[in-house]
Amino acid sequence: DLLYEQDVSGALAGxxxxxxxxxxMALNLRKAGFALLVHDTRRExxxxxxxxxxEWADSPAEIAAxxxxxxxxxxxxxxxxxxxxxxxxxxxxxxxxxxxxEMSTNSRELLQQLHGAFAxxxxxxxxxxxxxxxxxxxxxxxxxxxxxxxxxxxxxxxMLKPMGDRSLHVGELGAGLVTKLxxxxxxxxxxAAIAEVFSLGVKAGAEPxxxxxxxxxxxxxxx
Length: 223
Known about the structure:
Elements: E1 12-16, H1 22-31, E2 35-39, H2 47-51, E3 55-56, H3 60-66, E4 69-72, H4 77-85, E5 99-102, H5 108-118, E6 124-127, E7 130-131, H6 133-139, E8 143-147, H7 150-160, E9 166-171, H8 175-203, H9 208-215
Parallel strand pairs: 1-2, 1-4, 2-3, 4-5, 5-6, 8-9
Antiparallel strand pairs: 7-8
Helix pairs in contact: 1-6
């Protein structure tokens, strides 16, 4: 039985990009009981998915022809554009009513380009970047921030749940990307600040490990 039903319980999902993040995300989708069609430039990357009962597609176009929801997790803007708009790409066979959740770290310009190409065909492009790292992908403990058509998000949200324990619609197309950038900037700023204040403490005479242990017990450290 499927763990997440609603109106997509019998839908065939397509997943393109089975790398360090996409591989375990797609596998968790299959383990949750969803029918799955997968594609990657390396067929060997799909071995665990095929062993779990997924099907192989020879191209993104084959996935678009058979699936009303497509997830992509890809390594670069050039690859995203190729998968969407290139030869044998999704654009060649996409069906009206399809939702494409682009889960890579994308750009606003490319998202708008993809939306402009797919919207006239009745398909919705949504940006859905993730946060949580490779271990979070394996454990299904990811934040998924989605920008784009809210109706499409609501319809296919049950398929996001096996991949991430925090999926949130954050606004119009591109808002997911903005959310991830804000999150990453905050994270990097905090890391830089911690490095600076620890350098200050050590230069002032504190022993590094003792300082770390002590700060962990303060009001901020306990968070």
